[in-house]
Design a protein that fits this description.
heterodimer, A: mainly alpha, 2 domains, B: alpha/beta, Rossmann fold, seven-stranded mixed β-sheet, globular, cell inner membrane (chain A), transmembrane transporter activity (chain A), Xylose transport system permease protein XylH (chain A), transmembrane helix (chain A), cell membrane (chain A)
C-alpha cells in the first residue's frame, strides 16, 4: 500500500459529502423538497415549477419563515411559543391603526406620506418586542412554563387585536407599507441581478475568509476542488433563483398602467420581470442575521448551551433568565416583522390574520430539524421547513385535493418528518 | 511538601449556614484552605459538603457567615462572581453542554471574540487543542459534540475548563467517581502538579483512601455540621470513617461543633 508510506496524510476515506462538508440532514431535506416539487410538477402537467408559481410560493412562505427562525431559538432552549399567530395579529392591528388613524389624524401626515410606513413598522416591531419580552419575563423570572404563558397569550393577543380594531378589517394600508407584501413591491430585473451578484460575491468572500482563518490556525481545510464545487453550487443556486423570479413577467395591463401613471406611453413589445420581492429580501436578511446570531455571537452560543444543559449554562455564569427574556423578545420582534409582511400582502389588516400560524411556525421549525428536547436546530432548516409546508399546501390546492385532505396530509407529514428524523438520529448516533 | 499555614489563608469560609425549607443543610461550618494545599471534604450523601462548597462556587448563597479570599471579605452571589475571584469548579455532573464541542464548552461564558464582536471559533479551537494536548495527549475529537465523548474525555474537558483560566482556587466534586484506574491516576497527577503551582484545592469525596492519598487535611461533615478537621497523616482511614459514620472525633483531629462528646 502506498498510503502507508505517507502517514502524515489524513485519512482519505471520507465520502464525498464529508469532503464537501455538507450536512447530510440538510441534503435529505433538500432531496425531499425536490422530490415533492417534481412530483407536483408532474401531477399538475407542469404547472407547479413555473416562474409564476415559484414566485407565489416564496412570497407565501415569507411570513411563516420569518417567525420560524425565531421559533428555532425558542425551541432550542426547551421552550415553546404558541402565541406567535395571535401576536402577529396584535402587531398587525397596531401597525394598521398607526397608519390609518394615528399618523394621518394625530400627527396630521397626509395619505401615503413617506414617514408613515417607517413609523408604523417601528411601532409594530416594538409592540412585538415588548409583548415578547413580557412573556419571556413571566417564563424566565416568574417560572411559569412557556407552554402555559404562550397558551394564555394565544387567547389574549388574538383578542387584544380584536378589541383594538373593534373586529373591523382595516385598509387600505399605506402604499409604501404595502411594498413589503410581495407582489406589490419587487426590485425589477436589473436590481435583482445586482443583488444576486452581491450575494454571490459575499458568499465567495466568506468561503475564502473562513478558509484563510482555518489555515492560519493550521486546521485541516477541505481540498480546493471541494471549495470550488461548493462556491459554484452556491453561485448557481443564487443566480438561478434570481433568474426564475426575473422570468415571471409583470402583466401587460399593469405595465401599461405604470407607464400611464408616469404620463408615458409603453413601447411595443416591452416586458419587465418582477424580480426579487422585497419581502423575500427581508426574509433573506432575517435568515442571515439570525444565522450569524446563532453561530457567531455569544447570545447564540448561550442559547444552544442552555438548550443542551441549562444547569451547565447557569453554572458557567450565563444568566439564563435574562436569556429567556431576550429569546422571547426576539420572537416577538420577528412576529412584528411577519405581521408587516402578512398584512402588506393582504393590503389590509383583518381580524383573523395569522390564525393557526403558531402551528405552521412550530411545524416548520420541527420539520427543519429543531429538536423539541432542546439544543439542536438550524435557521436554514426552519426556513426550508416552512417552504416544504407551503409547497405541500399550495401543491395540493393546485392538484385539487379537498381542503380537509390537505390538512390531514400536512398533519401526517409533520409526524412522519419527525419520525424519519428520529430514526436518522438513532442510526447516525447523533443527538 | 511543607505548607505554610501561618500566613493568611487563601480561602476562609467562616461560620457558614444555609437552610432549605427548615432543613439546615449547612450549620455554622468554618473551613479554610492555604495555597498549595489540598483539603478534603468528607461525609455521607446529604452531609452538606456539596452545599457548603456551592456557596463558594456561586451556585448557592449562604444565609449567614462570610467568605474571605486572601483575608478580604468577598460577596459571591453567582458563578460569575466566583470566576472573578479565580475560583473554578469541576462539578460532579461535569456541567457540560452535550450538544456543543469541546472548545465551546471550554470557553462557555468566557468566549474569545474578534474585533467585530463575533465569536472567534477557530482561535478557541486552537487554544483548546493546546490545552487538551497538555492534559490528555490522546484527545483528538475536537469538532464533534461532547455527547460523543467517553467519560474520561468528558472529564478532561471539565478539568481543562477549570485550569485554563488561571484558577487560584479549585473545587473538585468527586472528580474520579466515574473514572477508570488510569484516568484516576491522571487526575491524581494533575492535582500534584496544580499543588506545586500553588493552587488551593477543595476536594469533595466519599472515599477515605482517596482522601488519605490526595489530601493534606480533611474536614468531615455530618448532618450539616463540621465533625472535625485533621491532618491526614495524624489520623488513620478508620479514624476518618469513624468521623463520617459516628461523628466521633479522634485524638489527632481538631473537633468541630458536630463532634460527639463522650
Amino acid at each position: 500500500m502506498t498510503d502507508a508510506d505517507k502517514p502524515a496524510r489524513p485519512a482519505q476515506k471520507k465520502n464525498l459529502f464529508a469532503q464537501l462538508e455538507i450536512d447530510t440532514r440538510l441534503l435529505g431535506m433538500i432531496g425531499a423538497f425536490v422530490i415533492l416539487c417534481l412530483g407536483f410538477h408532474f401531477i399538475t402537467d407542469g404547472r407547479f415549477l413555473t416562474s409564476r408559481n415559484i414566485f407565489n410560493l416564496t412570497i407565501q412562505t415569507v411570513s411563516v419563515a420569518i417567525m420560524a427562525t425565531g421559533m428555532v431559538f425558542v425551541i432550542v432552549t426547551r421552550n415553546i411559543d404558541l402565541s406567535v399567530g395571535s401576536l402577529l395579529a396584535t402587531c398587525s392591528a397596531v401597525m394598521a391603526m398607526t397608519q390609518t388613524f394615528i399618523t394621518p389624524e394625530v400627527f396630521g401626515l397626509g395619505l401615503n406620506h413617506p414617514a408613515t410606513a417607517p413609523i408604523a413598522i417601528v411601532v409594530g416591531i416594538a409592540t412585538g418586542v415588548l409583548i415578547g419580552a413580557f412573556q419571556g419575563y413571566i417564563v424566565g423570572y416568574l417560572g411559569v412554563p412557556a407552554f402555559i404563558v404562550t397558551l394564555g397569550g394565544l387567547l389574549v393577543w388574538r383578542n387584544v387585536a380584536w378589541y383594538l380594531t373593534n373586529g373591523q378589517t382595516i385598509g387600505p394600508l399605506d402604499r409604501n407599507f404595502m411594498q413589503f407584501g410581495g407582489i406589490n413591491g419587487t426590485l425589477g430585473e436589473t436590481w435583482s441581478w445586482v443583488i444576486g451578484l452581491i450575494a454571490v460575491l459575499f458568499a465567495f468572500y466568506s468561503f475564502w475568509r473562513n478558509r484563510r482563518s482555518k489555515i492560519s490556525h493550521d486546521f485541516p481545510v477541505k481540498p480546493i476542488w471541494a471549495e470550488i464545487v461548493m462556491a459554484a453550487i452556491t453561485a448557481v443556486a443564487i443566480m438561478g433563483f434570481v433568474a426564475v423570479l426575473n422570468n415571471y413577467d409583470v402583466p401587460r395591463r399593469r405595465l401599461q398602467q405604470m407607464f400611464e401613471a408616469r404620463g408615458e406611453v409603453m413601447p411595443d413589445g416591452f416586458t419587465q420581470g418582477y424580480g426579487l420581492p422585497i419581502s423575500v429580501l427581508l426574509l433573506i436578511a432575517v435568515a442571515v442575521v439570525m444565522t450569524i446570531v446563532a453561530r457567531r455571537t455569544r447570545l447564540g452560543r448561550y442559547i444552544f448551551a442552555t438548550g443542551g444543559n441549562p444547569d451547565a449554562a447557569a453554572l458557567s455564569g450565563i444568566n439564563t433568565r435574562l436569556l429567556t427574556v431576550k429569546i422571547f423578545a426576539i420572537m416577538g420582534g420577528l412576529c412584528g416583522l411577519a405581521a408587516l409582511v402578512a398584512s402588506a400582502r393582504l393590503s389590509f389588516h383583518s381580524n383573523d390574520i395569522g390564525t393557526l400560524d403558531e402551528l405552521r411556525v412550530i411545524a416548520a421549525a420541527v420539520i427543519g430539524g429543531t429538536a423539541l428536547a432542546g439544543g439542536v436546530g438550524t435557521i436554514y432548516g426552519a426556513i426550508l421547513g416552512a417552504l416544504i409546508m407551503q409547497s405541500l399546501q399550495s401543491g395540493m390546492a393546485m392538484v385539487g385535493v379537498d381542503a380537509p385532505f390537505q390538512n390531514i396530509v400536512v398533519g401526517a407529514v409533520l409526524v412522519i418528518a419527525v419520525l424519519i428524523d428520529t430514526i436518522y438520529r438513532k442510526r447516525t448516533g447523533a443527538k | 511538601m511543607a505548607i505554610d499555614r501561618n500566613g493568611t489563608p487563601l480561602v476562609e469560609m467562616r461560620d457558614i449556614s444555609i437552610a432549605f425549607g427548615g432543613v439546615k443543610a449547612v450549620d455554622h461550618v468554618t473551613v479554610d484552605l492555604f495555597p498549595g494545599e489540598v483539603v478534603g471534604l468528607l461525609g455521607h450523601n446529604g452531609a452538606g459538603k456539596s452545599t457548603l462548597i456551592k456557596c463558594l462556587s456561586g451556585a448557592y448563597q449562604q444565609d449567614s457567615g462570610d467568605i474571605y479570599i486572601n483575608g478580604d471579605k468577598v460577596s459571591i452571589s453567582n458563578p460569575r462572581d466566583a470566576r472573578r475571584h479565580n475560583i473554578e469548579t469541576i462539578y460532579q455532573t461535569l456541567a457540560l453542554a452535550d450538544n456543543l464541542d469541546a472548545a465551546s464548552n471550554l470557553f462557555l461564558g468566557r468566549e474569545i471574540v474578534g474585533p467585530t464582536g463575533l465569536l472567534d471559533d477557530n482561535k478557541m479551537e486552537a487554544e483548546t487543542r493546546k490545552v487538551m494536548h497538555r492534559l490528555n495527549p490522546n484527545f483528538k475529537n475536537f469538532t464533534s459534540p461532547v455527547s460523543s465523548y467517553s467519560g474520561g474525555q468528558r472529564q478532561s474537558v471539565a478539568i481543562a475548563r477549570a485550569v485554563h483560566f488561571n484558577a487560584r482556587i479549585l473545587i473538585m466534586d468527586e472528580p474520579t467517581a466515574a473514572l477508570g484506574p488510569h484516568e484516576t491516576q491522571m487526575v491524581a497527577d494533575l492535582i500534584q502538579e496544580l499543588k506545586r503551582q500553588g493552587l488551593g484545592i477543595f476536594l469533595i469525596d466519599h472515599d477515605v483512601h482517596q482522601v488519605k492519598k490526595l489530601c493534606d487535611r480533611a474536614n468531615v461533615m455530618k448532618n450539616g455540621q463540621l465533625v472535625g478537621t485533621a491532618n491526614v497523616e495524624d489520623v488513620s482511614a478508620d479514624d476518618l470513617l469513624g468521623m463520617i459514620i459516628a461523628g466521633k472525633c479522634p485524638p489527632g483531629a481538631i473537633p468541630g461543633p458536630g463532634a460527639i462528646h463522650e
